[in-house]
């Protein structure tokens, strides 16, 4: 197990190195003169050249990349010249709130999807199942910005239950401190996930329901509810863990839309603003975070599955 | 009686001391009125009918079944797939599949009517008064829960025991079913146990509340013969120790003959014949039972005679039948059989049958003899057609770190044998002995780690992929699971034409003609060409599998478990067909099976494999008639014969324990860990495969043949 973790960490490191290289060179292709971007179109070529020289942007691209890696190794994600702030600080200020929003959306989605999927499996091809499946397809096909707008129109305009704008507080705990203001963003984020997760959970639960051990549990005289909670639940959730792991980075993308729609200050909003400002160091760092999440999501999912299912041996 | 039953409450623990004097009415004239006194009656099933509705389709898997179970008795229910035997078991458990319901009749458990019992009351009985042992312990145990918890669960549920008390009870029970070191095993997960051990856990789980009735549904079908014998004996032993009654559901007449006190033979959802085991086997009355017993290959049957086979296939239970369900396949059927349903009529000794024209006398039948093989004799030249030289195959098994030596599963470890032209070589052994790995290498589907397969003087194992392409026409394989080995989206015609098309044989029309010919050879109508595999029955699919293997007119045919997925009555059809084709075509074939009787029937020479090695080879007569290796003898002893008169072999003749790991096989003789005769020598030196007499060779330091003669003189 220890060996497995060490090996996976080493591989993860290599993957991240690759991601950083690809993103760095792509960004370099898009804009090879940060001085021009920072100082603006009307700045003199000399000033631009001086800026580039001062910050080392006139060096060969490989040298710049090595320098960037050196910075990263020292925990320095670079500097946003537009905001005149360390990128690390910027991300750190926003990461907590985004993480909280994503986590709330994910947890809500799982809390709905897991029981729903199992219910659908148990009532296979009955009304509940068909209705839920139909709803899932519709919701899955709905873009989140549209869904968000509909939710705002219904629950904020037509029935003023929730505010249309998310909480502007800087605390990462707003989900708990101001749940009313966070309801719509969290729901918007959760709904699409529910659609995917519940269908996945349904088919996984169906597989498990056909297994003999469920019949054995029935033969022991267990009531149906205990059969589902004691025997089915854990086995049916195993495939979902892997799915959630691979979907973690997409939460970041979901945040992008939800945060801008509800004007919630988080990583997504920061990314969009940086994109408009052509603030490349921030974009670079954001992409790197996406990479870290992808790698970490899969890694953690594999570990969780191995703990939940003892048949899997982590030895490779 | 009913009052006392409810008074005892849901969670109360039934003690064996309770007098189960049942008030069963037996005035219906069924066979149930006979036999032991009614005070001993535990379970009575009268006129039970079950219906399963799926959309528009209605299946009637059980119709008008009468059965009775007495205290301390084992009732065997035997039948083929779809005979309704398992569904009868599920009906008793109140666990019919979705859409299923009991449409009539009664199930009486010690005076309590189970049909129509409210769900909550049924749950109190399930696992407590009636328990079930399932077939496949791999899927029947929850993979993510510890076995201790799973065994303890019914105790906590039905007896309201504390967690600790239930755990203690689970440990006791695991000890009782013979799980070594039960206290340590409580926290194991199912995958950490072997198949035999898992089945013991399964039994412990079913018996932990000491039910009055245990229903064992094919409890040993997924296990090897040596383990099967142990498990069935364990069930017998526990049954008498805990004072239970058992319903043993199986397709295996041998298991019934050895382990059941009374038998119910089911066909098409009805009881065809029932009675005490010795009576039923010696005076078989129903035509179906009669035919079934004649179609089982046995270890004593004359190999030059064809097996009896029942034509046709079991009835379709979605349509209502008039008359005897067996009539369409019965050679004694008359118009009366086709029009009028025979009722169970009782004879003396509680023997009853539902047949208008019952057979009289023993099951012996006149069997057709095979024509002497003419095609092959002149072909038996000096050079063998297939020669296997010191073949080895090792598969990587995980790894021991970056620098550690890679661990390997030694599937095949140095096997050599020869197959002459027109000869059939049988490979027998338990699962995991490497026989299938060997089979795949014979037809070049897999490459050996070392050693060679030499076909007609050419080493196939060293050929390039291109050279092999043409050679493959000569080496064909017939697979076990015809359902998985036929492409579900191809019509049978396409499946049969495909090998010809790949090899570029003939025009399209010629290929179609050839496919028609092949179907004819395997006894299928040409109309099958247009059908898809799922439209055929299992036996028909296996015939298609054989036809496909024969399409390119191979010289060598490897058949891996060709009939183990088939029902008894279909099995004999396919076996006869294979015998006939072997004889007609002068094929050299290798038949791989765990079933000793099947190999005996098909093969001229036999090789017994154990843990990757051949331990004994010889002609079929030599090996089966005078087994020299203790493993062969043990295997033969473990096969239950479909005849209750054959004695159960002495326990010492059995192969004990389980197959060691093929990753670290035992030193010296690989069988020594399970051998009663093993000495220090066996652990030190590996016995070579040495000639004993004639072509009979054995790899053993203490072969039974010399030993047995010595024993005879001393006793």
Automatic annotation (TrEMBL), chain B:
Q: Which gene encodes it?
A: oppD
Q: Start and end of every ABC transporter domain?
A: 45-293, 386-636
GO CC annotations on file: plasma membrane
Tell me the keywords, alphabetical order. ATP-binding, Cell membrane, Membrane, Nucleotide-binding, Transport
Organism annotation: Streptosporangium carneum
Q: Where in or outside the cell?
A: Cell membrane
Tell me which PANTHER family the record gives: DIPEPTIDE TRANSPORT ATP-BINDING PROTEIN DPPD (PTHR43297:SF2), OLIGOPEPTIDE TRANSPORT ATP-BINDING PROTEIN APPD (PTHR43297)
User: Where does this protein chiefly localize?
Assistant: membrane
Protein name in UniProt: Oligopeptide ABC transporter ATP-binding protein OppF
